[in-house]
Amino acid sequence: MSRTLVSSVVFTLACAYGVTVAAQTPNAQVGTWKLNPAKSTYSPGPAQRSSTVRIETVASGGLKVTADTVDGTGRTTHNRIVTMLDGKEADYQGAAQPTTRAYTRIDDRTIQWVTKVKGKATTTTRSAVSPDGKSRTNTTTGTDEQGRQVKNVVLYERQ
Q1: What gap in Å lies between CA 10 and CA 75, rounded to an integer?
Q2: Strand, coil or helix: 14
């Protein structure tokens, strides 16, 4: 092989690798997050007693979100979703009612999702990771299954 050909191949591979790395920008949401109930507000209540959320990247570039929660009445839930952050609905597994969420990436630290229960949009949640990466705040607005206005601001801390 000539030096020119070898140089061209090396350059092409380096460029391809650079594009691949750039396309897979790390998502600040990835990690394990624990609810801080003292720094969270729920309207209407009752507030969640505890929640641990694990967010992982999946091979296709999306996210796998797993949540283990104890709600205000003491009921435990285990929910899971795999999403591509492309605004398309995905099944939110483990919900009491048929539920979907459509996730989109807003920027390097922020994602948003629209929740639908039985096909009807109920809430929109914006999840923003703090600049230091130690906490994330989920702000949820909309209506609950009983038609009441929802305004929750929920703080999670990185574990």
Answers
A1: 57
A2: helix
